[in-house]
Specification:
The structure is a single chain. The protein is built from 13 helices and 15 strands. With 390 residues, the protein is an alpha/beta fold. The strands form three sheets. Strands 2, 3, 4, 6, 7, 8, 9, 10 and 11 form a nine-stranded mixed β-sheet that branches. A hairpin with a 4-residue loop joins strand 8 and strand 9. The protein is globular.
Length: 390
């Protein structure tokens, strides 16, 4: 290689190395913020404000120095030990949006709010009735919000949920998150995270099923569900209706059903191990017709005193459980078809996916057609184990 070529090669290598190092170093810290300069938001509550068009935004914020039990918060941190300070503070502000609210708090707090570890978002009942589209817009646009957070509609004010002080858990945000993780213990609530909700409400024109939450001072209840129609709260589902919808959608992973024992002496508790469903279109016509088959398997967990079970009355128990499951499914379907007239059962999605030509005939009138859709339900139950009887 000539001296001239060697010189060009060395110069090119130097430039490449300099650019590569600059890329690695700068790309790793361009948005860096010292962790001691952040406040990590555990939960967000959104209520209507008395000022028209504005919201009361409540931020649930863990206090690190109180949790650490006396350690300071680092430079810019605000002092020494936690003493009797609560491990969580709820800061509220009136704002046009959650982003605006976070910026407003910058006028009162000396740290940035971080939403990377957010656990729960709660929307107040009044906000949901007037329309959730404005308040969820920042969650759709900005990736800083943790989309694995749980989202729920509050029965009443969202701030009351943010202010609970559960006796079973030090941090309310973790308590709320863990409640929604109990789907294997109970199917009586609507489960789903923020990402699922945003996907659902975007794809189905503002229609969605979402968790419901009601609060006391020490605990909350997440039983039931909320129905959104065109981005507005249409109404609530009871616990039985919510479980019926979960059976319909094949989302049941556990729970229990209590029935009268075959001899009329007491109660029998049936523990659900698994449930499968099969949906099939059986007719088209002016309104389509569907057949839903549900298969439930489980064990007999316990009986009241005086109730004796044996292999001969298993079939009777299976029939009683099947009737109860079918009743809950029909209650959920009726509520959605007759009261709210909104297809969150995703029957339209089923037709679009498996019968696209037929769906073209229905899609423009589907909101009017859905209440007249016929759905036959058949449930079979299998008792796997009745336990020790003697």
């Amino acid at each position: 290689m000539s001296p001239f070529c060697k010189k060009i090669a060395r110069k090119s290598l130097f430039i490449f190395t300099a650019v590569f190092l600059a890329f690695v170093i700068l790309s790793g810290c361009w948005d860096y913020r010292d962790i001691d300069k952040r406040l990590f938001v555990g939960g967000v509550g959104i209520d209507k404000s008395q000022q028209p068009g504005r919201y009361n935004i409540s931020f649930m914020i863990p206090i690190v120095r109180a949790i650490a039990g006396g350690e300071g918060g680092g430079s810019g941190g605000g002092g020494g030990g936690g003493g009797n300070q609560k491990p969580v503070e709820v800061e509220s502000t009136v704002a046009d949006s959650i982003t605006d609210g976070a910026r407003n708090l910058a006028l009162r707090l000396n740290r940035d709010l971080s939403f990377e570890h957010m656990r729960v978002v709660v929307i107040g009942e009044d906000v949901a009735k007037s329309g959730v589209e404005p308040v969820i817009n920042p969650f759709m646009r900005q990736m800083e919000f943790n989309r694995r957070s749980r989202i729920a509609i509050a029965e009443g004010e969202a701030r009351k949920v943010m202010e609970i002080q559960p006796w079973v858990e030090k941090f309310p945000a973790l308590y709320l998150e863990s409640l929604f993780g109990n789907e294997s213990l109970s199917g009586k609530f609507i489960d789903g995270d923020l990402g699922d909700f945003l996907h659902q409400i975007h794809d189905f024109n503002g229609n969605a099923l979402v968790s419901k939450i009601s609060s006391g001072s020490k605990e909350v209840n997440i039983g039931g569900g909320a129905v959104l129609k065109h981005f507005k709260l249409a109404g609530w589902l009871t616990e039985e209706e919510a479980r019926g919808i979960n059976f319909f959608q094949g989302k049941i992973t556990g729970g229990n059903i209590t029935i009268d024992d075959p001899e009329g002496k007491g109660k029998v508790t049936f523990i659900i191990l698994r449930a499968h469903r099969q949906l099939q279109l059986t007719a088209d016509g002016p309104a389509p017709e569907f057949r839903l088959k549900v298969c439930v398997e489980g064990n007999i967990s316990d009986t009241t005193e005086g109730v004796s079970l044996n292999i001969h009355n298993e079939e009777v128990i299976e029939d009683l459980v099947s009737k109860e499951v079918k009743s809950e499914i029909l209650k959920g379907i009726s509520r959605l078809q007759q009261d709210y007239r909104v297809d969150v059962l995703k029957l339209g999605e089923y037709l679009h996916k498996y019968h696209p030509k037929l769906w073209k005939d229905y899609k423009d009138r589907w909101e009017d057609i859905f209440p007249d859709v016929m759905i036959s339900v058949a449930v079979t139950t299998k008792v796997k184990n009745i336990g020790v009887t003697k």
